[in-house]
Structure formats: C-alpha cells, structure tokens
Amino acid sequence: MYAAERHQLLAQRARRDGRVDVNDVAGELGVAPETIRRDLGVLERQGVVRRVYGGAVAVERLDFEPEVAQRDQTNAAEKDAIARAALDQVPDRGSILLDAGTTTSRLATLLPTDRELTVITNSIPVASILATRPGITLHILGGRVRGTTLAAVEAWTLHALDGLLVDVAFLGANGFSAEHGCTTPDMAESAVKAAVVAAARKRVLLADHSKYGTDQLSRFARLAEIDVLVTDSGLDAGAVAELEEAGPEVVLA
C-alpha cells in the first residue's frame, strides 16, 4: 500500500471511529508502528488529526462529547478496575465529593456500607445510586442539568461549592496530560470541576489511559493540583514518570 493510500485510510478511520490506534492499524496493514506514526505526523500537519498517546484523534472530534450511555461502554473494564483501586482513597469516615462521570459512578456503586460517609455530588446518576444506600448521608448540588453528562452546572452549583470543604474529591476528566493538566470540552462543567478542586483537602482524578494526551478546550486543574491519579495499566512507564514529575501520585489499576 502506498503512503497516500495509508493516509486516506487513516483519515477515514479517524473520522469514522474518532480515534486511530497505532498498534492496531500497524498490525492490520502489516507495517511497522513507526510507519503509522510518521503517517499520522503528516496528517497532523495537514490539520486532519491530533496525535495523542498511542495514536491520534480526528480534529473535528476533539470537542465532541459523547453522552453518558456511549461513554459508559468505552473502556468499561479499565473503568471498573480504576473504581476498585480508587476505594483505597475513600476515608474511613468523613466527607467525599463525587464529580459527574462514568468512572465516578462506578465508584459510587462500590462505596462501603460499613462506615459513615457524607457524600456530595452534582451527578444525577451518582445520586440515584446512593439515595437509599445504608451509611450514606447524601447531598445533591443544584443547578442546570446538562443533558450530555447529567451533571448540575452554573451559578447554583458554584455557589454551593464555594461554602464547602470536603475530605476527598473524586474527579473525572475528558483529557489529561503533564503539559495541559486536566481538561474537558464544556466550559460550564469545567468551572464546576475547578470549584470541586478548590473545595477539597485531597483531590483524586479517575481517568483511563485513553484520555492521556487528549487535551480538550477548557482546563479545570493543573496536575500539580491533583494529589492522586488513578488510571489503568495501559500507560507505559515513561508516561507514568512524566505525570508523577508533574505532581500527582500515579496509581495503576
């Protein structure tokens, strides 16, 4: 296959699937991963894709935000593992804040019932999971509910967060990197996440490896503001070292 044909195939794959995985395409085409990386470099210079860890994403999909049901099915096994590992960050007693997200929702289902916890959330799914859970005192933050993420945002949410100081906050993100920190495509949701960071003594980011390097429109925290990053073993040792140098302890689920 000529280079021009590979470029066309990669561009089509990125637009169709939203992401191209270097190793998968290299195996499919029978070429070295370095060849695909060079091809993606050409497409990046043409403005077709943005290179990220392990591959590339279509430029037009960078600010695309899938709805909850679709996101819940993506990297489901990794998210389950991250949620289980995050249980070690839950205090024996006290208060926690659960941000909106499919991984934080998984953590909500696993919260122990043998201790007294005050849980605050701006997530409708998380609130539904915990509303009748023994041992949980639940507070839900008000505000406009975004249909895409089912998260409360804007002035009411921000006002409530301004008066809080929780023991541990568990956050989700659409992208994270050592250079650009923790990001999300929606500015209203980003403002709430930033307020969550400010309202917590300890901040724990839950994000699977596919979000590494997928920087989005709005940053809500630098990595130095995150105490612990719980991710999965899809990140290599070099990426882990880079992230830890930026600030947080990295836990691989």
The share of residues in extended strands comes to 25-35%
CATH architecture of the largest domain: 3-Layer(aba) Sandwich
- Helix/strand class: alpha/beta
Order of helices and strands: HEHHEEHHEHEHEEEHEEEHEEEHE
Organism: Amycolatopsis pretoriensis
Keywords: Repressor, Transcription, Transcription regulation
Protein name: Lactose phosphotransferase system repressor
GO molecular function: DNA-binding transcription factor activity
Summarize the entry for a quick read:
The chain is of the alpha/beta class. The protein has helices at 3-17, 22-29, 33-45, 68-73, 76-86, 102-110, 124-130, 155-162, 187-198, 237-246, and strands at residues 19-21, 49-52, 55-58, 94-98, 117-121, 136-140, 144-146, 151-153, 166-171, 175-177, 181-184, 200-206, 218-221, 228-231, 249-252.
Give a description of the structure.
- It is a single chain.
- The chain is α/β, with parallel strands linked by helices.
- It has two domains: 3-58, Orthogonal Bundle (Arc Repressor Mutant, subunit A), CATH 1.10.10.10; 69-252, Rossmann fold (3-Layer(aba) Sandwich).
- It has ten helices and 15 strands.
- The chain has helices at 3-17, 22-29, 33-45, 68-73, 76-86, 102-110, 124-130, 155-162, 187-198, 237-246, and strands at 19-21, 49-52, 55-58, 94-98, 117-121, 136-140, 144-146, 151-153, 166-171, 175-177, 181-184, 200-206, 218-221, 228-231, 249-252.
- The strands form four sheets. The chain has a seven-stranded parallel sheet, with helices on both faces.
- Helix 1 packs across helix 3 (33-45), helix 2 packs across helix 3 and helix 6 packs parallel to helix 7 (124-130).
- The protein is elongated, with a radius of gyration of 19 Å.
- The N and C termini lie far apart (39 Å).
- The model has no long low-confidence stretch (mean pLDDT 91).
